[in-house]
């Protein structure tokens, strides 16, 4: 039986759906036409794997505006569909437009992020200095602006990225603008925390720990990856300085949160083992409240060795800047990276580490 792990990435005016057949070690792809413009960001609905949102360039008068829209892919191409990808035989398919996220009054879209645990009917888009919460109605054929908030301050403030937390019943979103990270409550669209000068230069990406509700990772143009406890944002909990150029992406493993991927303009992908700040620092599940209790109960002189964080592997198959890394949703040990020259690389967590985590 084939273990298909779909990967979606965008080229100019196209989206490629890539299927990795693990059993036979074969990569196949199908092409979806995206005729409205060059794609800068893609995000898929967590509730309906056939629905996705894109941010794309659209010429407008004398300038280029980045717009956003929600689409549905053909049924046969959805994960679990019946069509077998074949590079030579498959013609290009067409996306079905469901709705536009109207940004005419708000500026260029930076990204769209979906409510991670909902029914796929709520999305947040970041447009210039605006954070916009949308309700997708009528089978996602209509996007209604439910609420919004704006950055206020000196200069031209613009969001660069955002991430919706899978915790707190879907009520918290983190955003980045310039060197600052902010947390927002989606119920009131009010700010709940602010990390000024989180990085020495532009913050590129954010990701929430899937198992520890207060932990957030960030990366930026200062070549660093930082881990934050949003209850106390005065200092990062940990900092990684393994890359030698801008860090574009940081991603927690969906199942084993000690595994963290980063991709950089130094053309490298780094897989790190951040076990000391994971939900399983001693090989079993531990939540934040249990740690202090365990320390109090531990007999004197029998302190447990602190877990050691480390770089597991550095991958150098790319010859250009790595702009995207992500984990497979089908296989927790599989991940993909994409570089500026269009090269897609699929790798696996080293077998020895996999069994160390499992056993």
TrEMBL record:
Basic and acidic residues: bias regions: 294-303
InterPro entries: Beta-prop_EIPR1-like, EIPR1, WD40/YVTN_repeat-like_dom_sf, WD40_repeat_CS, WD40_rpt
Swiss-Prot/TrEMBL WD repeat ranges: 196-232
PROSITE patterns in the record: WD_REPEATS_1 (PS00678), WD_REPEATS_2 (PS50082), WD_REPEATS_REGION (PS50294)
Region (Disordered): 281-309
One of the GO BP terms on file: regulation of transport
Domain EIPR1-like beta-propeller: 13-271
Keywords of the record: Repeat, WD repeat
Role: Acts as a component of endosomal retrieval machinery that is involved in protein transport from early endosomes to either recycling endosomes or the trans-Golgi network. Mediates the recruitment of Golgi-associated retrograde protein (GARP) complex to the trans-Golgi network and controls early endosome-to-Golgi transport of internalized protein. Promotes the recycling of internalized transferrin receptor (TFRC) to the plasma membrane through interaction with endosome-associated recycling protein (EARP) complex.
Family (UniProt): Belongs to the WD repeat EIPR1 family.
Record's subunit section: Interacts with two multisubunit tethering complexes: EARP composed of VPS50, VPS51, VPS52 and VPS53 subunits and GARP complex composed of VPS51, VPS52, VPS53 and VPS54 subunits. Interacts with SNAP29.
Protein name: EARP and GARP complex-interacting protein 1
């Amino acid at each position: 039986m084939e273990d298909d792990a779909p990967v979606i990435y965008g080229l100019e005016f196209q989206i490629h759906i890539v299927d990795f057949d693990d059993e036979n070690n074969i990569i196949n792809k199908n092409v979806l036409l995206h005729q409205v413009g060059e794609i800068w960001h893609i995000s898929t609905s967590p509730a309906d794997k056939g629905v996705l949102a894109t941010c794309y360039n659209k010429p407008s008068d004398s300038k280029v505006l980045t717009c956003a829209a929600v689409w549905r892919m053909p049924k046969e191409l959805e994960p679990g569909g019946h069509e077998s990808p074949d590079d030579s035989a498959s013609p290009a398919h067409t996306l079905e437009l469901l709705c536009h996220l109207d940004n005419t009054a708000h500026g260029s879209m930076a990204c769209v992020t979906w409510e991670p645990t909902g029914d796929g009917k709520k999305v947040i888009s970041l447009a210039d200095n605006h954070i916009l919460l949308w309700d997708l109605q009528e089978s996602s054929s209509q996007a209604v602006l439910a609420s919004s908030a704006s950055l206020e301050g000196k200069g031209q403030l613009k969001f660069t990225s955002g991430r919706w937390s899978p915790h707190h019943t879907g009520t918290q979103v983190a955003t980045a603008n310039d060197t600052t990270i902010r947390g927002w409550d989606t119920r009131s669209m009010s700010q709940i925390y602010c990390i000024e000068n989180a990085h020495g230069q532009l913050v590129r990406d954010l990701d929430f720990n899937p198992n520890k509700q207060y932990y957030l990772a960030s990366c930026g143009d200062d070549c660093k990856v930082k881990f934050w406890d949003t209850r106390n944002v005065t200092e990062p909990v940990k900092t990684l300085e393994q890359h030698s150029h801008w860090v574009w992406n940081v991603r927690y493993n969906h199942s084993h949160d000690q595994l963290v991927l980063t991709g950089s303009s130094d053309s490298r992908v780094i897989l790190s083992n951040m076990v000391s700040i994971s939900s399983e620092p001693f090989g079993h599940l531990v939540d934040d409240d249990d740690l202090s209790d365990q320390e109090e109960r531990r007999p004197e002189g029998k302190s447990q060795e602190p877990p050691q964080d480390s770089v597991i592997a550095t991958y150098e198959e790319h010859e250009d800047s790595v702009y995207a890394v992500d984990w497979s949703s089908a296989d927790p040990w599989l991940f993909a990276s994409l570089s500026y020259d269009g090269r897609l690389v699929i790798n696996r967590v080293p077998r020895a580490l996999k069994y160390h985590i499992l056993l």
